[in-house]
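Raw record, unedited: DUF2293 domain-containing protein
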Amino acid sequence: MEPIATPPHGTGLVVIQPLKKRRCAECRTGPLALLVLEEGAPRCLDCADLGHLVFLPRGDAALTRRSRESSALSAVVVRFNRRRSRYERQGILVEEEALALAEERCLADAEARQRRRVRDARRREAEDLRFTDAFEREIRRLFPGCPADRARAVAAHAATRGSGRVGRSAAGRALSEAAVTAAVRASARHTDTPYDQLLMSGVPRHEARRRIAATVEERLREWRDEHTPGA
């Protein structure tokens, strides 16, 4: 039989997943999926008075901890790793009622976390809406000739959370004139000039920007005029 080290103090009962086929030394049932060593001889769980316990695989630390806390009797399940020459934990055996109670508590926690995620998402959505509104108002103040739907689109694009765009920068969140102007300029560059087509045709970015710079600045001058037609 594969060796087993003496469990550390406080570990409690240890149950083995054997690598080889073993029979119970007392009732002769086998092969055993799980066994307990008593005085060097294998015992099945029923003969070791552990047959009423259920197996909980490792992987969920919270469920494992709560199951052990609620179970009057429990055991650690180990299996020998030949490559590492040591026994490794596979899970625990606990009372079925304790596992059910632990699952209920973990489910309640999961539901609470989901409710909190929903609340946080709603809060962020409201914050983003307020920020987009403020960004749009600043666009309209600096560029009163900018059409309302265009100002809204620029604000929504620039202020998208996690986008890395100018609206989410520190200057953008502070609604600095430079950041707002940069967002409007970027919109004009991509929407009102052949800039994107130039990039797709292989024109270097700096050269493409040079070619369309006059058109972009003319559009910004138009939008700075509150009497621009269509505003």
